[in-house]
Amino acid sequence: MRQRLDTNDFSHLTGLGVLAVGVDVGNLPLRELTMIRYLDRFRQAAGLHNLSTYVHGLSSISLISSVVGAGFDYIAGDPVMSVIETPESIFPIDLENLYQPLFKSTA
Predict the structure, then answer these.
(1) Cα(64)–Cα(70) distance, rounded to whole angstroms?
(2) Could you please report the per-residue DSSP string of the chain?
(3) What pTM was computed for the model?
(4) Model confidence over 6-30: pLDDT tens digits?
(5) Residue 34 within any structural domain of the chain
(6) pLDDT one-digit tens code per residue, 35-69
(7) Domain range spanning residue 97?
(8) Is residue 1 a part of any domain in this protein?
(9) Cβ–Cβ under 8 Å, residues 25 and 56
């Protein structure tokens, strides 16, 4: 269930059968550090209610690394993989593969 980034209480979803909550940050005009703080609070609040979490629209490798560290379950954004019409499966995040293009450009 998509929520606002500033949501920090998910008690209203208890008992409704909701399994995951998430947010689309693609168009939010926030500085990266501010977004990381909000995402961390969002993840912690969801965890209090045993909800899985997802985030869509991440635009940088540093944001992706931050949400991996925060414990988000599902992550999407162009640095992970570009949008496709019909996804066939979900892939685990591999931070080494995410940073690989940066190492190739400096070699």
Answers:
(1) 10
(2) -B--TT----GGGTTTT--EEEEE-TT----HHHHHHHHHHHHHHHHTTT-EEEEE---SHHHHHHHHHHT-SEE-STTT----SS--------HHHHHHHHHHHH-
(3) 0.79
(4) 999 999 998 899 999 999 998 999 9
(5) yes
(6) 999 999 999 999 999 999 999 988 888 888 899 88
(7) 11-106
(8) no
(9) yes
